[in-house]
Specification:
six-stranded parallel beta sheet; about 400 residues; Rossmann fold; about 20% strand; globular; alpha/beta
Length: about 400
């Protein structure tokens, strides 16, 4: 089944729509990064549904007691008998052999025509994905509640549009961190302890395939020090204290992407082997991770324009990744395109310029679009600099507008 990438409001609407379909429908599996609101969403829907909704947390101590699994199905079926119901299972990966067990229950309620919907959540796409592919083929649909966008912050927390976009660049978009935004020390501790450590220390390491956890942490540290930069695996390997084979470095980067932390973009190319051989471009999927790890803190656009520009580029590329777009980069020395986008937004080649620029700075974008005319060019600029691109005959929008809505058709 296809996977849909949605923000909090979009996930809520999609789930409600599916839960209004005749039960039992397919199992709804909701994945996504830590601390983006999956539990909040399930509790919200449980309250809205009322008596027919039944919420359980698989990481609760009660879940370790004998008979827990059978009891939750007995209770949810009892509630469903009064007009239909929904069983919400939060953090389902904590239940041993969860995919096989939920398959058996789902087949039973389907066979007996029990009017019960099932929604399950988990933080790690990789753990849930492996189990669901092996045991639940044809029985589930997946939704991904992504990192919050600037628009989600604006709508959910009352930010002005421009302030929301700037906040996403400087401090990311984890909603739970917003209460600490006036205390940067406490904010940084929250990001490290509530998001990064559980994602790396539990979600990824618990897979049982990480033989060198220290190397995994070092790769993450190297990645957050190089946002929106093309880094060869050989160079990354040379920066690591605990060196591993290139295949191990590439594998650990893929695991960090499954944990919604880092994306390693492939180079655009028509030949598969050339794409895979090229060094990846590293994108940190939430700028909060940058700010939490950089000892200098968030960059000031006036005092540190170059570093700020890198963070803007990373935020724009991360927004495209989090929105479910296929994202690549293109480079043929000395020409380069920051991002090549394919997906529901359309097909775009984007160049991100937060400082002054002229036609020489856009040679890569112009050459790429000449070679591949199905891609539309777009220059993402600082606010007020759009006319520079327009004079060159290129469409443009500010990085703040891009972070709020993506490219305009």
């Amino acid at each position: 089944m296809p996977e849909y990438y949605l923000d909090y409001g979009g996930c809520r609407i999609a789930l409600l729509r599916r839960l209004h379909e005749p039960p039992p429908g397919r199992i709804q599996i909701l994945t996504g990064p830590r601390q983006v609101g999956k539990t909040t969403l399930l509790l919200d829907l449980t309250d809205q549904i009322g008596q027919g909704g039944y919420y359980v947390a698989a990481d609760d101590p009660q879940a370790g007691l004998p008979g827990f699994w059978d009891r939750i199905w007995t209770e949810s079926e009892k509630r469903a008998g009064k007009g239909g119901g929904v069983l919400f299972i939060d953090e389902i990966q904590h239940i041993a052999d969860w995919a096989t067990r939920i398959k058996g229950q789902y087949d039973r309620i389907k066979r007996r025509k029990i009017p019960l919907h099932v929604v399950a959540t988990g933080s790690s796409a990789l753990r849930l994905g492996a189990g669901s592919r092996e045991s639940l083929a044809g029985r589930f649909e997946r939704l991904t509640l992504t990192h919050w966008s600037a628009t989600a912050l604006k709508d959910g927390f009352g930010f002005a549009a421009s302030a929301a976009a700037l906040f996403v660049v400087q401090f990311g978009s984890y909603p739970g961190s917003l209460e600490f935004r006036d205390d940067l020390g406490r904010w940084r501790t929250y990001i490290r302890d509530a998001i990064i450590e559980p994602a790396i220390g539990r979600d990824v390491l618990a897979l049982g395939v990480i033989r060198r956890p220290a190397l995994l942490r070092q790769i993450f540290a190297v990645a957050v020090s190089a946002p929106a930069q093309i880094v060869s695996l050989q160079k990354m390997q040379g920066q690591l204290q605990d060196r591993g084979a290139l295949e191990t470095v590439a594998h650990y980067l893929a695991l960090l992407e499954e944990a919604y932390l880092v994306a390693a973009l492939q180079k655009y190319g028509e030949r598969e082997h050339r794409r895979r051989a090229a060094p990846p471009k590293l994108v940190i999927l939430n700028n909060a991770l940058l700010s939490a790890f950089d000892p200098r803190g968030a960059p000031d656009p006036n005092q540190e324009p170059e570093r700020f520009g890198l963070w803007v580029e990373n935020a724009c590329l991360a927004f495209a990744c989090n929105a479910g777009q296929r994202l690549m980069y293109w480079r043929e020395e000395p020409l380069e395109v920051d991002g090549v986008i394919e997906g529901s937004w359309g097909e775009w080649a984007i160049e991100i310029k937060t400082g002054r620029f002229d036609s020489r700075d856009l040679r890569g974008l112009l050459e790429f679009c000449r070679r591949y005319p199905r891609y539309r060019p777009l220059v993402v600029t600082a606010s007020g600099d759009e006319p520079q691109a327009h004079r060159l005959g290129l469409p443009a929008m500010s990085w703040a507008d891009f972070l709020l809505a993506g490219p305009r058709a």
